[in-house]
Structure formats: C-alpha cells, structure tokens
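Checklist before submission:
- one chain only
- standard amino acids only
- sequence pasted in full

Submission:
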Amino acid sequence: MSLIERAGLALLHRVDPERAHGLSLLALQTGLAPLPGPVTSPRLATTLAGLPLLNPVGLAAGYDKNATAVAPLSRAGFGFIEVGAATPLPQPGNAKPRLFRLTEDRAAINRFGFNNDGMEAVGQRLAQRRPGPVPVGLNLGANKTSDNRAADFARVLAHCGPHVDFATVNVSSPNTERLRDLQGPAALAALLEGVMAARAALVTPIPVFLKIAPDLTDDDLAQIAEVALAAGLAGIIATNTTLNRDGLQSPHRAEAGGLSGAPLFERSTRVLARLSHLTDGKLPLVGVGGISTPEQAYAKITAGASAVQLYTAMVYHGLSVAAHIARGLDQCLARDGHATVAAATGTNRAAWL
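Returned file contents:
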C-alpha cells in the first residue's frame, strides 16, 4: 500500500462507513484512485465456467451496487468484477445506519437490504460500458415488497443479461426478510427453473452462478449441490455473509446484519471444501469470505475454488489489495510447483473437511 493510499484510507476511516464507501466510489469515478492495470501471468490466467480471466481474483458484489464505476474497477487488478445486487424496481434499502466497521475484528456488518437504483438504471449503465478483458457480472436480487420474489431474479436477468458476462442468483443475503428461505430445495429448484428459462431466451446465454450462505448444514449443502447440478448452473459462489457472531471483540458485534471479513474465513472455506467434495469437480466454485492475503486466496483455491472474490479486505487494505493478492497468489502457485490455477484447485480439500 502506498503512502497516498494509506493516508486516504485513514481519512475514510474517520467518517461514517457508508459515506466512506460512497467517497471511495467517487475517487474511482473521478480518477483519483491509483489503478495498476491488468495483473496476469501464464500461471494466473485461467477460465471460470468458460470465461477467460487474467487472474482468478474477483471483486464481490455489494461494492459497486449500481454499476457506476465499472471502467475504473476493471483497471484495478481484478480478474473479474461483479456489480449489484440489482432488483426489478429501485429501492432505498433498510434504515441508516446500516454499515458498521468492526476494526478490532477486521470485519464489517451490513444490513443494506438490496438498496439500488433498479434494473432499468443499472442495465442502462451496463449497456454503455466498453467491453474489455475483465468479465463483468451482475448479482440478481429481489424486491423486498415483491409478491413473487422468485420471479424477480428472472426479470432482472432478462433485462440486464444482454449487457453482462455472467449473473449470480443471490438468495443468501440475510438482510431481506425470508429471502434465505429460497435456499430450500423445492423453492430453489422452482426459482432456478425460471432463471434458466430467462437465460435460454437471451441471444447469447451467459453463465449463471448461485451464491449461498455460510450458515448451512451439511444436509442443506448436499441438497443445494443436487439442485444446482440438476438446474444446469455454471457454478456456486461460497459464501455470502454470516449471522454468526462467535469470538468477536468489536463494540458493534451485536448489530443486526451480515458479517463479512476475517472472522468468516474458516467458516466459508469449510463450506467451500464441502461443496467441492459434494460436486466432485462437476461445478466450478468461487471462494469468498475473509480473504485479505495471497495465502488466504491460495487456501481457498486449494480447498476447491476455481476463483475467489473479495470486498471487505479493501476496507482495511485499500483498493491495491486486489493486485497484491493476485501477484502473491502467482508466487504461491510457483512455490508449490503448480503451472496453473486449475492444477492447484482442490489439492488441499481434505484438510478442510
């Protein structure tokens, strides 16, 4: 991290977390944030569900909710980025304050509630982006007041699908009441049937992923894996934020919402490894949760991930963390004699089961 970035991060930590989030996006939009450009190597270059990636380090959904900084984020060292979540209609989300830094725990709690500009505005911005070497995906959400939340996911995909490289069905956010109920096998199968029908209707069908919660039992995971395979999904993203609060030190630890960051690493990695075992390599997996170092990204890959995503790490380590992790991951692969990311995927899965 440069001195300039360190100073900027210190200033952002002196203001309200949600305002700091907005200011960081503004810095990207106005060109104030230093951007390293593409980070790649023969070892890092890989594919995810058929998508060519310069490197396997992606940006998780939730940072650029409204697709307002796609171009600069594509030059920030990420191998792929995911914007959203977008819902059919605009919605303000939950009441503020709704984002909390847990500095002592290197974590964050949010209860945003899918605040976004809606699929019309988000889709228009995505349609105007210039295609480049960094795939851009959209996280699909449902409106809080919808009378058919399952249909909302298909609506957003049908509208925005022509303008993105992949999409993610997000039924795992803890911040929309009863949304996680859609992870049940019958409800999930019906939801995915509608989403995959919308995908098939696109002129160019795109990969569709499913993002799951870390707070699932082994039986839950087995059922989800079965449904995902039957639906023809491109992969699973493991995991979203957790409701667990074990071992936290911050005074904000009792706030309602989803916990992300360092405390999530072990829980999410165990879920990832379990899914890898259940799907036996039939579905690409994306590892998310608690990654802030190259070694942690490498641990996710050796546990079964084909790629990884991060977000909360930027709160504590700045935007440069993406390039730092990608370069360090290259060194981890070289150290252990892996010529590709795929060669390392799942090689240490047993340690997490």
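Reviewer check: The mean pLDDT is 96.
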